[in-house]
């Protein structure tokens, strides 16, 4: 009887382990070579006892940014559909901020990124969330890369925490990104502002997840070095270098040769630099939908380069 009970206990334990076995599911649309590298890396983490963290940039890394960033489209759409119909001081102030942003023209520069937060100041977090969510539903639905969604599903299978970093206003992105990727909204970190009496302010909480600020955001809020980091642009270099495991680069630019101001990337395109560094280069389809009329285009903000797969 004791032997029977021992065998039964062993069988039940093996059965329980089989139910919780971590199994890699190949990502459709990526090559066997890429899938083999991902599977090998994830299997190597099974014995890891510490927190397993993966961090990804948002626009252009998890979903499409062609022809325009969602953060820009959300703001210019709100201006056209709401603010231009009003005749109050607050609306005039916000439209003046947009005029300043258009004149600046550098929609990845620090002043422009901060002005997105200033534009939304005075609205409640829920109102900003709705602006982002409605813009997503109207112009970006279906633009999340299926390959990245499958990758994130695999990471969950292997007990990873998944975090998203964006230089866009945090409240603008949290709802739709959390819904699409199935991760907690508090794992979506963006440009933060102080909330007072239920409304956001123009007082920005540092660091902003932009350029080296993305690396500082990992240290400040996630509080551990990630095993996996994914990005797509020059602005993700510092964040990618926080990974002590796998670096994944999505649709990297292979046209623009970076200059001396780009530090170690000088003399390289984004793609050639990360190929040299041994990162995993992957491609996802990112092209404009000709059926959608973007308000951002009417405001003459530069378009992002298409990446047909």
**Distance N terminus to C terminus?**
63 Å
| Sheet with most strands | 7 strands, mixed
Principal-axes shape call:
globular
Going by CATH, what is the homologous superfamily of the domain at 23-66 and 144-288?
A: HAD superfamily/HAD-like
Strand/helix succession: HHEHHHHHEHEEHEHEHEH
Strand order of the largest sheet: 4-3-2-1-5-6-7
Please give the count of helices.
12
Give the helix/strand class.
Answer: alpha/beta
The pLDDT mean sits at 94
User: And the CATH topology of the domain at 23-66 and 144-288?
Assistant: Rossmann fold
Percent of residues in beta strands? 5-15%
CATH class group of the domain at 23-66 and 144-288: Alpha Beta
Measured on Cα atoms, how large is the radius of gyration? 22 Å
Helix content: 40-55%
- The tally of beta strands, per DSSP, is 7
So, CATH architecture of the domain at 23-66 and 144-288?
3-Layer(aba) Sandwich
Q: Which spans have pLDDT < 50 for at least 5 consecutive residues?
A: 12-19
Summarize the structure.
The protein has 309 residues and is α/β, with parallel strands linked by helices. It is built from twelve helices and seven strands.
Describe, in plain words, how this protein is organized in 3D.
This protein has about 300 residues and is of the alpha/beta class. The protein is about 45% helix and about 15% strand. It has a domain at about 25-65 and about 145-290: HAD superfamily/HAD-like (Rossmann fold), CATH 3.40.50.1000. The protein has helices at about 1-20, 30-45, 70-80, 90-105, 110-120, 125-140, 145-155, 170-180, 210-220, 235-240, 270-275, 295-300; strands at about 55, 160-170, 190-195, 200-205, 230, 245-250, 280. It has a 7-stranded mixed sheet with strand order 4-3-2-1-5-6-7, with helices on both faces. α3 (about 70-80) packs across α6 (about 125-140), α4 packs antiparallel against α5 and α6 (about 125-140) crosses α8. The N and C termini lie far apart (about 65 Å).
């Amino acid at each position: 009887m004791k032997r029977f009970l021992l065998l039964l206990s062993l069988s039940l334990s093996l059965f329980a382990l089989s139910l919780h076995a971590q199994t890699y599911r190949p990502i459709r649309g990526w090559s066997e070579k890429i899938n083999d590298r991902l599977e090998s890396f994830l299997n190597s983490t099974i014995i890891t006892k510490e927190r397993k963290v993966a961090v990804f940039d948002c626009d252009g890394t998890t979903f499409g940014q062609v022809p325009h960033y969602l953060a820009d489209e959300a703001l210019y759409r709100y201006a056209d559909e709401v603010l231009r119909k009003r005749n109050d001081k607050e609306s005039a102030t916000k439209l003046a901020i947009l005029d300043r942003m258009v004149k600046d023209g550098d929609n990845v520069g620090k002043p422009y990124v901060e002005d997105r937060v200033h534009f939304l100041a005075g609205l409640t977090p829920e109102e900003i969330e709705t602006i982002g969510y409605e813009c997503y539903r109207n112009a970006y639905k279906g633009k999340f890369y299926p390959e990245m969604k499958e990758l994130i599903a695999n990471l969950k299978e292997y007990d990873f925490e998944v975090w998203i970093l964006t230089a866009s206003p945090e409240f603008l992105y949290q709802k739709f990104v959390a819904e699409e990727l199935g991760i907690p909204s508090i794992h979506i970190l963006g440009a933060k502002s102080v909330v007072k009496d239920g409304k956001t302010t123009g007082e920005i909480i540092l660091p902003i997840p932009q350029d080296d600020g993305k690396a500082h955001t990992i240290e400040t809020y996630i509080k551990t070095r990630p095993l996996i980091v994914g990005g797509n642009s020059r602005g993700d270099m510092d964040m990618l270098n926080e990974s002590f495991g796998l670096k994944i680069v999505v649709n990297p630019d292979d046209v623009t040769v970076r200059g001396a101001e780009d530090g170690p990337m000088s003399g390289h395109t984004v793609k050639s630099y990360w190929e040299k560094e041994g990162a995993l280069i992957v491609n996802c389809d990112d092209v404009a939908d000709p059926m959608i009329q973007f308000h951002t285009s009417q405001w003459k903000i530069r378009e992002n380069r298409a990446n047909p797969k």
